[in-house]
Amino acid sequence: MQALIIVGIILGVLIIAMVVLYFVGNKMQKKQLDQKEQINAAAQPMSMFIIDKKIMPIREAKLPKVVMEQLPKRYQKAKVPVVKAKVGPQVTTLICDDAIFEDVPKHGEVKAMVSGIYLVGVKTLHSKTRKMQQQEELDEKGKKKKGSMRTRMMKRQAEYQKQLSAELENRKTKEAEKEQKAKEKKERARAKKIVD
Asked: What are the distances in angstroms from CA 148 to CA 29, 72, 81, 136?
């Protein structure tokens, strides 16, 4: 009898924890999407030459002091995708979005969307650069490299982010359609009252 009570309490606590995690996760996802929208709204197109790209700790990335001072301590050891690029005459270090990190060529000229020090979008300009990038992805036998666990997880995360943003976009359009239909219905009802 006591075992059943203990199991019931444990199950109750687990269910409550799952519900709390679900709501917290949804809230964090919405916050992240809002931040991405703000970043994308502030993005500006630039032409740049990519010198190198790596995944490294933020401390070693040689970012501006202002950025490092504003960064919380818990994130200072985190590894982030970093791109070293030549923008005009100046060599700068940019933090790259996880979703596009694989699309950034190691060496080559690109048209990029940049928001502050954050690289949001990349489009390769020359076909030679694309061919070099495809060659780098192949191993000695001509098969596609498997990649590290981190790169595979980043690809999956990018795919899930794209799916999520598409779903949210669909929801927004459906909500907008519903609002439009409701407005039209109100206008028709108002027109009927005026006619009567």
From this structure: 26, 28, 14, 15
